[in-house]
Amino acid sequence: MRIGVFCSGGDAPGMNACIRAVVRRAISEGHEVVGINRGYQGLLDEDFFTNEAGEPLMTLRSVSGWSRFGGAFLRSSRSAEFQSDVGVKKAAANLAKHRIDGLVPIGGDGTFHGAVDLAKCWDGRIVGCPGTIDNDLMGTDFTIGFSTAVQTAVEAVDKIRDTAESHERMFLVEVMGRHSGFIAVHTALAGAAECVCIPETKTDIPAIVRDLRDLKSRGKNSVMMIVAEGDEEGDAVKLNEELQAAGNPFSTRCVILGHLQRGGSPSPEDRILASSVGDSAVQAIVNGQTGVMAGIVGGQSRLTRFEDTYAEHKPIPPELSSLIERLAR
Ligand code: F6P
Predict the structure, then answer these.
(1) Which of the following is catalytic: 117, 134, 231, 270?
(2) Does the chain have fewer CB atoms within 10 Å around its N or its C terminus?
(3) pTM of the complete model
(4) Among candidate residues 114, 116, 123, 196, the one with its CA nearest the CA of residue 154
(5) Would the CB of 178 count as within 6 Å of ligand 1?
């Protein structure tokens, strides 16, 4: 078979380890791999990775040494052109033109929506890998990049805590997660934050201010609040204004971690997950599967229909949120 691989949407640490797994598994079983640069846009532009010999095929050596690096060496993008009927048909025609009969898209829900559209006009096999720092896909306990993003955010929170304590301040630290509070909740728990605001739960400003007053009266001199960028009350700056207006007793500062969370050398967890799902995706394609994502649930490989990876909102385990609350004393 000739298998195409690409990264799409927001990049995530571990995507390179996933590409490596796809390439090594496929080639070692006698298949060919086409590296598609810049996601769906690269497919439209026929923009392929070229090997040492100048051919548009990846070799075992093309992926040497990449696992330890963040980013996506095949590049990533969000393609507006692909999101039209004309774009999807052109992508399908390009796959046929280059005799690609299997595809491994590495990305998040937008990438898998695209894969579903593509499958309507292309009869090759598509098996995806979950690559997004947001951890917002069903069908896998964790997504590639999440562990590293949390690690980066926790390192930042630890540093911010130093200055928060020196100056007896409260910090609102905004982390990524447009629709999901996974990064926020894990960062809050690991960073021993006193409070977390996420899109999944109602942010009650007067109740938070009561808690803050209570903490202050019990001798807390610094407070860390983790805010998911997609909190329904607004971002960290907006929440800060609301808390101040409602009588927050602490002096405050806001820090927005932003794209810092998308970079850096992937954690061992992300490399292991990426390697496993990349390998499983190739195996699934060779076995005739299509329209599914390769994930890991409870330590076991699992294939989930693309539609089921994004149909429901992946729930944050409620015990994690209550643990944060219980320990913030
Ligand atoms: O999908 C991952 C994510 O990191 C979101 O948490 C964030 O809102 C978004 O990407 C930002 O992406 P970009 O700046 O690439 O549009």
Answers:
(1) 134
(2) C
(3) 0.97
(4) 196
(5) yes
